[in-house]
Design goal:
Layout (H helix, E strand, L loop, with lengths): L6 E6 L5 H10 L3 E6 L4 H7 L3 E4 L25 E4 L1 H9 L3 E17 L16 E14 L5 E5 L7 E4 L4 E4 L11 H12 L8 H16 L3 E6 L3 H14 L3 E7 L7 H12 L4 E5 L1 H8 L5 H22 L3 E5 L4 H7 L26 E3 L7 H10 L4 H4 L19 H20 L8 E15 L2 E14 L7 E2 L4 H14 L3 E6 L13
Parallel strand pairs: 1-2, 1-3, 3-4, 4-9, 10-11, 10-13, 11-12, 13-14, 16-18
Antiparallel strand pairs: 5-6, 5-7, 7-8, 8-9, 15-16, 16-17
Amino acid sequence: MNIKNNKILILDFGSQFTQLIARRVREAGVYCEVWPWDVDFKLIEEFSPKGLILSGGPESVHLDDGPKVEAKIFELAIPVFGICYGMQAIAHHFGGTVIPSDEKEFGYAKVDLTGQSQLLDGIFDEKQGQLEVWMSHGDKIDVMPAGFHVTSSSATAPVTSFENVDASIFGIQFHAEVEHTTQGRKIFERFLFDICNCDKLWKTDNIIETHITNIKQKAGNDKVLLGLSGGVDSSVVAALLHQAIGDNLVCVFVDTGLLRYKEGDQVMQTMADGMDINVIRVNAQQMYYDALAGVSDPEQKRKIIGGLFIDIFEEEARKLENVKWLAQGTIYPDVIESAASKTGKSHVIKSHHNVGGLPDDLELELLEPLRDLFKDEVRKMGVALGLPKAMVYRHPFPGPGLGVRILGEVKQKYAEILARADHIFISELIKWDLYDKTSQAFAVFLPIKSVGVVGDARRYEYVITLRAVETIDFMTAKWARLPYDFLELVSRRIINEIDKVSRVVYDISSKPPATIEWE
């Protein structure tokens, strides 16, 4: 069984929601990939999708330099589904007119179904014939293209969806991929299963089975080296590789001294003791503290932490014999974000390397078994492979660890104070059933001293900041409204249990204008 036989191709016009489209498709049980809108048409033909989805985007199709739809995609005889800019690009291509809106729509809206619709019939919210949706557009369709009919409209936009059933082309002005469009999943399922006739093959058990088969075919009896960080991605890679190749997997875990509270021991207990994976632990805490002494600039700290990891990892790798492969925890969002459009229209967010900069003379081939999976798929795989759910569903943790949650210079005593404070904060979040209701929560060490009073004694010690946010995509975030009683308890525990802290504050900055992390 080839679980990628039924597949959808998403052409990305630069929307911040494109990855959400892909996640909705995969959640429904269908494999999909995201490619730049201007990818070579021959590659689309070779990919042979059962349907195409055109994403939204920040441009205006009526401008000369606005991205346009490749005409040949409509000759593939497969369904096409345009979302927001994708719909406008379809309208423009077939001779319709798109103009700037007098009244722009951003946020919640209601649309009324106005005509028979293969895509939307029978899908509605509380009131039949009406959908609650999320809009984000400044242009609108003014003149409909020939052969298409309007299927819904809103108070400010006469065309919020259309379709040409004979050509199997559909468009919606709203964003069905975001949670605010309450029937969004049903709309995607209608397109995938009733219109594209896809099968539900993209399931966790099938994914694991396929990946294990692929790893066995690729690596054979070769030894594979993995840099184990203790994070979700590398831990799932380790569990997957261990199931596929057993003792031929060798993991190197570098304990930097900048991990969560007692995390080094937890990694060894879970991976080495619990799963019988071959893990080499390198206790490099003092090396990191020495290398970071006197360094305050965040970017310099990142470079030192990353560079030292590479040096240590390389040294350990050279001690091993007959290693042929280097495994990395690269996941699909890293691949998408690192891929630039050939015309530069797609905005590159970052370049990603889990273990970058290793010298070529190690002569290791790269193995990235998770590079086609989203984070939520990786987490589900981890649980299915036997990793503790509490580990797999932990909040994000930065690559440099506590090194960028200690403001300014990193010292051992600062790291120890912060790790303990962070542990108190997280453990109480779990006890109060608040951990899963926040998207990310952590403590930050401020290298300033504040006066406090403990008993009859004056205490002049450091300040800890607590940070907790709620977000869907981490591109924007609002500070979490945690209960006052909870915050009071956490503050009291930190000050009472850590004698080097005299004050605890709570960060109520949202993103934007602030970032989630402090450095």
